[in-house]
Specification:
Chain B: Belongs to the binding-protein-dependent transport system permease family. HisMQ subfamily. Chain A is α/β, with parallel strands linked by helices. Chain A is built from 15 helices and 14 strands. In chain A, about 55% of the residues are buried. In chain B, a hairpin with a 3-residue loop joins strand 1 and strand 2.
Chain lengths: ~375, ~400
């Protein structure tokens, strides 16, 4: 059989994978964006087919880290706009928890949190973009499930936000529980775990429903606002974000039931364990930092005067823990200095003082009543 | 004497490699082998590499349980059905939009196209504005307009507009009474089928009779009588077995009845009106291609305007209209994939959308989906080409 042994650069098929990126940049008009999105999906499938068909794997010479370093930035897949997680602000800069995490990865590698480029992806396009190598990390409120972890060729690197699926409904419908929703029309987004959870929940409770599934979040929100459906369902954190986009956010309530587990986290492609480790340990470092009280404000101080060996290992004044990752030993310091610890990141983007007003809940540290737990650096 | 040893009348004796026929077949064979080999290597490579990255491959997923709901299903489907069945649900939804859209677009297109040539200023202007506006706005924009603008203007189910207490219009769509078939309903259905058959036969018979004798029968009235009378008699004989279930508002939505979802209405109307603008232009140019002498001749035979158009002009114009009409039909079918934009569960939304995302088998699913669109296009084109041959000018 013919083997196309190509130099690894050719295996990247740069010409193919650049097209979707170029299209993604074209976000001037919503209509054009939609067309571009359709094209983009097709193209990234072709890019995937192309990459898979033309290249012999293992022939890859450059590691992901080397590739990222040589292009000079991390390409990070985010949502097309979910307040609190990944959303362009008025100045057109990306902001949110998922966005800050990507900045932390860039900080660990380059010492510069701005060395990151964002690719907005709809729920359904996100995995293809990762598989085809268009993006290096997917940080887009993505639920860790066994199918995604085992049959899509992906690895989840941890959980940045423990969540669960909920329902939002207009107050004037006078519904207090999700169990009163039989017969309701429900709006949701395709390509999410949400669709299946919804089906399971209604079936388990012997209730009927009508589902209307849209490709993008924008349409979900518009259709819900126009009254096409009684209920909007997605991750509860997502509901908090989407509610801000409604005409009158205060006319809507989120019902108390949580119908699923939605551990949201960053994802990388199979095939490069070093890269997997780097992304995994960026989050761990941020969690450890919070646990140890190391913040972006005091980290310089800690470098100079910390005596706690745990802190010294984190900021790189003791041991050579960056080596195993292929990074500098000050990788932890760079993350905390430039982006901050997990708690800082949380408070800035989704916390009680933001429009989303999400209390820490499950996302508090393990020793503060939550389940966030950073693996030890040692 | 000249030497006659050389071949006479035959071909020069050259090596068969230089035979143009052998050459062209040979080259084609080589090209075919190369293409097949490349394709095969590509597929093999893809399979190995996907396996190396542990990305699921193959078509086994089609038998797995889908686990998601779909809000318009022409065949029985539930969350416990397979992905394979979800595929057919999506496919049928695509075909439904395509067929209804094509019929509507053809009717509107012909009316507007003829309207553009009308002597009546108002009709002509409206038709022109129609064509210029609809043809020049992007179809996705029109779909979103029909969906969101019209949807927001509709009342909630509780305040729905009711027609005779049987049909309800709201932002959940149009809810129609559902026909319930009791005992003996089969006979009525057969009677309807029989009536349709008789109508077709009768039309043929009266047409050939008119050719022979020149006498015209009141075809329309007799056919209407057949269409209504026969099923009615059957209903009476079997004691009215078909009843209607009136939709009823219960909780959030109507229960009972048939729901025509707003996504379907918006998509079909938008695609039909958009495509109609192009068809109108085809019709107009088709009509203009028929020489003016034809209508003068028809008029001098005493045919009225309508008859001239129907019996003389349009049949000749069809030869020019059909080929571009075919590509408009294909466009409409392909544009139906814009359905994802408004949440209509067509093939792309259900299969290349939800199913793809849940299984992650992008290459297989996109390949199947592209194959299906190709097949739909080929079928449409084949039908239209057959029709084209029938109306084509037969030189005598
Ligand atoms: N966590 C779920 C849902 C993720 C998801 O896509 N959520 C929607 C609704 S909150 C979203 O982020 N939309 C934003 C966008 O599409 O840009 C998953 O991984 O499937």
């Amino acid at each position: 059989m013919l083997r196309f042994r190509m130099p690894s650069a050719a295996c990247e098929l740069p010409f193919l994978s650049l097209v979707p990126l170029a299209l993604a940049a074209d976000t001037s008009a919503p209509i054009r964006m939609k067309k571009a999105a359709i094209m983009k999906r097709l193209l990234s499938t072709f890019a995937l087919a192309g990459a898979m068909g033309l290249c012999a794997f293992g022939a890859q010479a450059a590691t992901k880290l080397e590739q990222v370093k040589s292009k000079g930035f991390v390409q990070c897949g985010v949502s097309q706009g979910l307040p609190g997680f990944s959303n362009p602000n008025d100045k057109g800069e990306w902001s949110g928890l998922d966005v800050e995490f990507c900045r932390a990865v860039a900080a660990a590698i380059f010492g510069d949190p701005t060395k990151v480029k964002f690719t907005p992806l709809s729920a359904k396009d996100r995995f293809t973009a990762l598989q085809s190598g268009d993006i290096d990390v997917l940080s887009r409120n993505t639920t860790w499930t066994i199918t995604r972890d085992t049959s899509l060729g992906l690895n989840f690197t941890g959980v940045t936000y423990y969540d669960g699926q909920g329902f939002m409904i207009r107050k004037d419908k006078k519904v207090n529980s999700a169990l009163e929703l039989s017969g309701a029309s429900v709006c949701t987004q395709t390509g999410t775990t949400t669709e299946q959870n919804l089906a399971d929940f209604f079936r388990a409770n012997n209730m009927t429903y009508e589902v209307i599934a849209f490709a993008t979040n924008d349409e979900v929100v518009k259709a819900y606002d126009a009254g096409r459906c009684d209920v909007l369902t997605t991750d509860r954190s997502g509901l908090a974000g989407e509610r801000l986009k409604l005409t009158n956010p205060d006319d809507h309530i989120v019902l108390p039931e949580i119908i699923s587990k939605e551990p949201l986290g960053p994802v990388v492609a199979h095939g490069d364990d070093q890269w997997f480790d780097i992304v995994k340990w960026v989050l761990n470092a941020q969690l450890i930092a919070e646990e140890l009280g190391v913040t972006s404000q005091n980290v310089d101080e800690q470098v100079k005067s910390a005596t706690n060996p745990e802190i010294k290992r984190l900021v790189g004044t003791e041991g050579k823990y960056g080596e195993g990752l292929g990074l500098g030993n000050d990788w932890g310091y760079l993350i905390i200095k430039n982006v901050g610890n997990y708690g800082e990141m949380y408070d800035r983007t989704v916390g009680p003082d933001t429009p989303l007003k999400l209390s820490r809940g499950l996302n508090a540290l393990w020793n503060k009543g939550g389940i966030q737990y950073g693996m030890p650096i040692r | 004497m000249t030497d006659l040893a050389g071949p006479v009348g035959g071909r020069a004796k050259t090596s068969f490699i230089n035979d143009p026929k052998v050459r062209s077949i040979g080259l084609q064979l080589i090209a075919l082998v190369v293409v097949v080999f490349l394709g095969w290597s590509f597929a093999e490579n893809a399979r190995d590499n996907l396996a190396a990255q542990k990305i699921a491959t193959g078509f086994g997923f089609l038998d797995n349980t889908s686990g998601f709901g779909i809000n318009q299903t022409l065949i029985p489907y539930s969350e416990t059905s397979t992905y394979g069945r979800a595929f057919f649900v999506g496919l049928l939804n695509t075909i439904l939009v395509a067929v209804v859209g094509i019929i509507l677009a053809t009717i509107i297109g012909f009316l507007v196209g003829i309207g553009r040539l009308s002597k009546n200023f108002v009709v002509r202007t409206i038709s022109t504005v129609y064509v210029e506006v609809l043809r020049n706005l992007p179809p996705l924009f029109q779909i979103l307009f029909w969906y969101l603008a019209v949807l927001s203007a509709m009342p909630s189910p509780r305040q729905s507009i009711s027609l005779f207490g049987e049909v309800f219009i709201s932002n959940r769509g149009i809810i129609l009474p559902r026909p319930l078939f009791g005992e003996g309903a089969g006979i009525v259905v057969w009677a309807i089928g029989l009536a349709v058959l008789l109508v077709i036969l009768f039309r043929h018979w009266s047409a050939s009779r008119q050719e022979e004798t020149g006498r015209r029968l009141p075809v329309l009235w007799i056919n209407l009588g057949l269409l209504i009378g026969l099923p009615l008699v059957a209903m009476i004989v079997t004691g009215f077995p078909i009843s209607f279930e009136t939709p009823e508002l219960k909780g959030f939505n109507f229960v009972g009845g048939v729901q025509v979802i707003p996504e379907f209405v918006a998509l079909t109307v938008a695609l039909a009106t958009y495509t109609a603008a192009f068809i109108a232009e085809n019709v107009r140019s088709g009509i203009q291609s028929v020489s003016h002498g034809q209508s003068e001749a028809a008029h001098s035979l005493g045919l009225r305007n309508g008859q001239t158009l129907r019996l003389v002009i349009i049949p000749q114009a069809m030869r020019v209209i059909i080929p571009p009409l075919t590509s408009q039909y294909l466009n409409l079918t392909k544009n139906s994939s814009l359905a994802v934009g408004i949440g209509y569960p067509d093939l792309v939304a259900v299969f290349a959308g939800t199913a793809l995302n849940q299984t992650g088998q992008a290459i297989e699913i996109i390949a199947i989906t592209m194959g299906v669109y190709l097949l739909l296009s080929i079928i449409t084109a084949t039908i239209m080409n057959a029709y084209n041959r029938r109306v084509a000018l037969v030189e005598r």
